[in-house]
Amino acid sequence: MAKKRKIAIYWLGSCGGCDEAIIDLNESLLELASEVDIALWPIAIDAKYASIERLGDRELALSIIHGNVRNSEHEEMAHLLRRKSQVVLAFGTCACFGGTSGLANFLKPNEIQNWVYGEAPTVVNRAKTRPQAETTVGGNHLTLPVLLDQVHSLNQVIAVDYYLPGCPPPVDLIAQAVRAVIEGKLPPRGSFLAPHKALCDSCPRNSAKPPKIELTHIRRIHEVDEDSATCFLARGVICLGPATRDGCGATCLSINTPCSGCFGPVEGVDDSGAKFLSALASLIRAQSDSEVSGILDTIPDPAGCFYRFTQPSSILGRHRK
Amino acid sequence: MWKTVNTGAARAEEALKQFLPPCQLKCPINEDIQRTNVLISMLPLDPEGAREGICQIGDYLHERNPLFTVCGYVCGLCELECNYQAKGGSIRRRLLKRFVSDAYMDRIREKEELNIEKTKEDVAIVGGGPAGLMCAYDLSRRGYRVTIFETSDRLGGALWLIPHYRLPEDVLTTAVNNLVRICEADVKYNARIGEGKYSLDKLRKDGFKAVFIAKGTPMPRILTYGREKVEGQELSGVMYGQTFLYEVSHGNIQPNYFGGKKIIVIGGGNVAFDVARTARRLGGETTVVCLECEDKSSKDGIPADEEEIKGAWEEGVQIVYSRGVRRIMGKGGKFQRIECPHCASVFDETGFNPVFDSTDIVNIDGDVLMITVGQGPDRSFLQKENLLDDRGRLAVDPLTLQSLNKDWVFIGGDVRKIGFMVEAMHEGLVAAESIERHLRGLDMRAGRKREYEPQDIPFRRIYKHEPEVVWIPPEKRLHFQLFERGFTLKEAIEEAKRCARCGPCVSCKACLAIGIQHSLPVVEVNEETCSGCGICTSICYYGSAQWRFKDGGTVSTTDTFRCKACGMCVVACPSQARRMIGDPMDTRIQEVFSTLGA
Amino acid sequence: MTTFEPKIVCFSCNFGWGYLTDPEVREMQIKHWIPVVCSGKIDATHILKAFRSGADGVLILGCVDGDCHFQDGNYQTRKKVQLLQRVLPSFGIDPRRVRIELSLDPEGNSIRKIVEDMGRDLRPMGPLGMKEISAKPVATR
Predict the structure, then answer these.
(1) Which chains contact C through at least 3 pairs of Cβ atoms less than 8 Å apart?
(2) Which of B529, B554, B572 is closest, CB to CB, to A268?
(3) CATH number attached to the domain at A5-100+148-183
(4) In a domain, C12, yes or no
(5) How far apart are CA A62 and CA A182, in angstroms?
(6) Interface pTM (ipTM) of the complex?
(7) Is pLDDT at C1 greater than 60 in this prediction?
(8) Nearest CA to B188 among B136, B247, B235, B119?
């Protein structure tokens, strides 16, 4: 019997949702487990880093890595897995683009630490204790991973072969991707294993759009009546669907929530935030500068809104200072 | 200063999908209105610097329309169809053209002869009016030896009917005389074809292989009442308005000729008003009497232009509406008064069929009566030359203008169908094409009829109001100088800027002519990436970006004839599914960005 | 800091700026100059990439409001710039580094001065220095 191929599934700066999505494969997981050897999967399997270090270079057929790179441990493990793998799949939006925690890039690291361990209203820290990278306890030298100065997407740290976006990726795309790797029927390296077009392509509300959208007001979702058929943008509610890759099955739309852009930019686009900005600006209808200002004033945090999932991979990158 | 590159590649014929802005559609010769509007709007503000630019624009216009300087004073058909009418007022294109022609007058006189080798046949043109002149110009350019036979001692035809306060004599003579000089056509004055030995057959024998008859409508229509000729039209003091205007144009009438006299003008058309306002300027107390009523929107509305009526009224001309003339009465052979019943209706389902109320009669006294109720062709000539059909109508093919009785004879202009100057010019061009096809043995009809669709006004946020047209105050107007003030350079640039540029790029290309870009880019949609989100459709001002259903979804498309390659859709597309082919901007951006690191 | 000369990328619209002057003459007067057919063709992405390539400021010159040859291209760009100026502070970039002027200058003689004026305003802010930033991980402390 031929030796089973080895794969690794690993989390970096991740919430664990991507692991849950893989588990949602349900019975197909058993099929998968029968065809491959899962050498590393912290949420499900007991394995040590040393066992990975012992592997030969490129001995892992596939590493599925989710989560962004935020601290030195993530960085180290990313490099390790890259060395030991033939194919690296950036799994989930955090790995592909940086994810929601990428919004931390709008702040400086010490600002974050000061808030979390000092200024937040529920914190009492008179000694002004801060987490340290090293300490000695009982004569033993202990270390903790160190925060990096910004949140990184996976491809800013190692070379990535394939991308599967989503927060989390939907089960059907995961099954397709895994099947493709196992059967060796993969598109060219660097490809996204998801549709190429924007969400509007499969959104059920798209065909009922009015011929001209002209926004004179921008509204929040709670300010409009529930309506399961009309396009959100047409009613002035910001929906990032037009600038976001398709593939999620329009799940948010089906529960009457506008798209927040978790699948990242459409094929061929570097910065979905900038593209959405241009698109939104063009839809605004006002006569004077001050009218335009008035409409834009109703968006409390445009940068956060447009770059909610993709800040680390944006053209401008992290905060300047 | 920009220099226009007249590649000549912007003619209406080349507008592929038969789209044109409505102004160019209305113009019988499809002049490049949009292109000249854009060029005027890009002139420098200083008059010296602008002069060269204006002459370049003039050259472009003159090449295709050597009578364009006249149009700027008397035409303006395009303004009737201008899309801006509903948004703030038509673009005052006539005044823009007049602006160009005023600066261009010297240039016409200096223009060199075309020096074309006349290797083709001899063609005779009977009539030196606008139709005949355009035909002569076109045929000369094609290499035919053209001879114009003109009845009077000057070229211009019915253009001489237009009073000098509307069309200065200098503008008319410069245009027509230089036209024949530049195209080196031969002109025979005082040549009355159809009289004596001068028949069409004689022309044939003299070697002319084709003849274009553009004799116009020299015969004033006589006054009738209930289909009977009204008695008294031979009384002294009764004349035909048309004849009167010709006399005035010859300079034969002294100033204040009608001082102290009461002039009555019968007729409700523009010519009647020309007569009335001319009589007024000669010192007469003038009244216009017409069948039609005052309400221009009704079926019986007075046909004269609003501007004419307003001008006449300001100058003190009285207008009596809804009256016909039943009798012309005189005493001792001299005109005294007219008897006018009320006209209840002018037109009905059968056409012109005035109905009078003989219980409501007024008498109007006067010293001079001018009858201006229309003009007609010289029917005896047409009959003698066997050009009529058996119902007495002109036997001519309306598409090719070829006579149905004699295949080497072509007929056009007012003589065929009375109309505007530019319509006659158009027929001159049609006849020239027909004569060429006939003599070269080509198909007469292929590709002649072109169907064009008018294009709508693009959307924009701000539409501007038309400028005021300035006339000299009426009390200062009673002379034969122009009373309408033309545009200054600044005003012309402003007004030309107001043009919304409704028409397709292929029939304009002004931006290419002055080097703003070097080719017309094309917008392409990548259907692999387009999600059919419709944002491009929302932003396109020209109705070019549209979406259609495809394979169960939607996708966007570009109508390349409406597209102006402005790039708004490319920028607004959140999928970057649109791009411009042939646009150097991206290359330039790369170049500049790469130097920033240094 | 005293010798810092801000690098300003200048986009200018051909229908409103300098169409009466030869392009070669204008090239010599304005550094980092990108003539475009309409200011509406400038995307937010272009502005961001300009910064990323080393520009300290981006200047956009378009036509007078209401006079755009392509109907409303200048108005479209104005809206984009307004929205972008609200996004830039989150990235720590002073919104005054993007400037848009809508006016008419057929000879194009005022462009050089407008760029210089903007340079003077940007000098106290210092270089943006985005070309030097890399995406490589760097540990804090």
Answers:
(1) A, B
(2) B529
(3) 3.40.50.700
(4) yes
(5) 9
(6) 0.93
(7) no
(8) B136
